[in-house]
Amino acid sequence: MQTNDLIQEARRQAEICNACRYCEGYCSVFPSMHAGRAFSDGDITQLANLCHNCRGCYYACQYTAPHAFDLNLPKALAEVRRDSWEVHAWPQPLARRFHTHGGAIALSLVVGFALILFALRALGGGNHGDGFYAALSHNAMVAIFLPAFVLPLVSLFIGLRHYWRTVGGEPIRLSHITAGFGMAARMKDLAAGHGDGCNFEDEDRFSHARRHVHQAIMYGFLLCFAATSAGTVMHYVFNMPAPYPLFSLPKVLGLSGGLLLTFGCGGMVMLKRKADRALGDPKAWGGEIGFILLLGFVGLSGLVLYALGATTWMPMMLALHLGAVLTFFLLTPFTKMAHGFYRLAALVRDAQRRSLR
């Protein structure tokens, strides 16, 4: 479907839901939906990015097929949500391509970057320090990864700015940011309004499993980022270059983050394989799995790299790990990772709506 068709179908279903109001307390979507009577394209985009696709509303709904209304709100919002990331992404064609060929693109880039990084070592990029720097120098890592970190941030900023205009966002206050981060940190919507969890992987059973693996992935990623940040501060501020001992701050943060990331991504793949694909966006499924596997491999390869740090296999594993990290950063604006940023923006916008009531 084209963008207009997706939004029109989501609008039709939202209008029926707005008249019924049975699911009013399920998640952030329904209070926001019930705050108005008519929905602009921006309103539908905002509702779609508030939705976490827990599917509780679908299984509770009396108007799903074979009823003539044929409601499937989780699917309708998932399609609008994916389309909104593609429309607002910059540059746009990369986003559309990843969601349809995500696994192949991620694998190709990881292998390609790993070969390039391994070749750099052979051309004299290594042997300039201890530990990993013996395989690839610190200067070479900085030259490669600094642009790979900054450019996606610029791309995300442009995309989120477009999104904020689309949903009618207003000037942001600190209270809005605090409320948005609080909702994101707790992932309250994945517990549903009754607090028993959601039905993502099983129609007949409430579960907090998806909430827990989401939190493992989020906090695992943040711990890994904190480990890199701690290492950067120790290197440049305190003149303490790597390698670091086991009980140093970068190692403790990195190992705990890598474990959470690995197990969280593994759990998410299992849950998505159990879940009914007809209640999500079928076009995005391959891209979502590809991204989860990529992020899980970043965590797993980091743990394996630590285990192989003193062996002859270390340079090859380092190239694979850094290739995965480089791929992850460069693809961030065009993968499911963008969901975290758009979801946070949607929660901040919803906090604005609630503050104006």
UniProtKB/TrEMBL annotation:
Write down the InterPro entries for this protein, in alphabetical order.
Citrate_utilization_prot_B, NarG-like_sf
Specify the superkingdom.
Bacteria
| Ion transport listed as a keyword | no
| Bilayer-crossing regions | 102-120, 140-160, 216-238, 250-271, 291-308, 314-334
Alphabetical list of SUPFAM superfamilies matching this protein: 4Fe-4S ferredoxins, Respiratory nitrate reductase 1 gamma chain
Query: Which UniProt keywords are present, listed alphabetically?
Result: Membrane, Transmembrane, Transmembrane helix
Q: Which NCBIfam families match?
A: CitB
Q: What is this protein called?
A: Tricarballylate utilization 4Fe-4S protein TcuB
Source species of the chain: Tritonibacter litoralis
Per the UniProt record, the lineage of the source organism begins with:
Bacteria, Pseudomonadati, Pseudomonadota, Alphaproteobacteria, Rhodobacterales
Q: Which gene encodes it?
A: tcuB
